[in-house]
Amino acid sequence: MGNTGPLGGSPPLAYPSGAQIVLAANAPSADWHAVRRTGLGGSDMAAICGLNPYTSPLEIWFSKVGRPVPRRNDPVLDEAALMGHALEPLIATRFTALTGLLAVDGPGTLRHPSRPWIANLDRVTEDDGLPGVVELKSRSSYALKDWLDEPPVDVQVQVQHYLAVTGWDYAYTVALIGGQRTLVHRLERDEELIADLAAIAEEFWGWVESRQQPPVDGSHATGQLLDRLHAHPTRDVVVADATEVEWLLQQRAVAKQEIAAAEIALLEAENRLKAIAGDATDVHTRGELAYSWRPQPGQISWKTAALAADPGLDPEPYRGEPTRVLRVHLENL
């Protein structure tokens, strides 16, 4: 591998796909958000594929059609995003130290010539005279196992999207794990995956252009979005289509029965494993630790502790935001 060639210390201006730079890297934030509404970016693709635990396809659709969505109130996620951006120069430096390859700033916002695809590359590199994408991530130590062998699927989708936009043949992902360990993976262009993403993107963008809301899916992200969108009801009753509602209620009842059966099977298996362990903490099979049943400290009840310290404590100032609860009244359909 080498770090010299046509890159010349700055991003290349030609892309085999025919992509063009439509917004400079230092453009105002308002311009950047405006351009993002006109196409699908890498993180958008991961979300519409159902791979983002925090952002649903429905939320992406709202953003593309220009409909406001209540902001998620999560200081922890906000801090993680802020620190991830702040750490990018450090992660890029580690990439160069580990690989000997350049990692220069991305060129700005790229647009594919024939598809509603855009890309904002974290960094650009060059290997054997050919340009490539460098995607930088910062993750907690809990994510280590997800990165050991290869990047998580959502990151692979994001990177393949960038390769589709640029027309380039490879990319590197660089993950700083727990602030202590840097993992680098090289990904080659995957034409089959890119074709699948193109089909998904075409269907989704059709919903954007027609302003037809995509189907509601079963993700937690969609549930959280609906909670935010409808946190403050303004009317008591809506008359809905009986056929649709009754079918959904039946589906819900069947799912609850299947969950209950699965929970019984799970508990039976766990109880039998506990019986085998008996008074032992570890169970071995074929010379290896198969499972353990070890003591652990009990959980602390902070509510009990607080009331014991101050029996007159008023809990109301500590109450969280109000939520809406879904309760079914037609159980026998």
Primary descriptors:
alpha+beta; 333 residues; 11 helices; 5-stranded mixed beta sheet; 10 strands; 3-stranded antiparallel beta sheet
Task: Give a brief outline of the structure.
The chain is 42% helix and 16% strand. The chain has 11 helices and 10 strands. It has helices at 29-36, 42-48, 57-64, 75-86, 88-99, 144-147, 153-166, 191-210, 220-229, 242-277, 302-309, and strands spanning 20-24, 104-105, 108-111, 118-120, 123-127, 130-139, 170-177, 181-188, 282-285, 288-292.
What does this structure look like?
This protein is an alpha+beta fold and 333 residues long. It is 42% helix and 16% strand. It is built from eleven helices and ten strands. The chain has helices spanning 29-36, 42-48, 57-64, 75-86, 88-99, 144-147, 153-166, 191-210, 220-229, 242-277, 302-309, and strands at residues 20-24, 104-105, 108-111, 118-120, 123-127, 130-139, 170-177, 181-188, 282-285, 288-292. It has a five-stranded mixed sheet, with helices on both faces. It is globular, with a radius of gyration of 25 Å. The N and C termini lie far apart (66 Å). Residues 1-6 have low confidence and may be disordered.
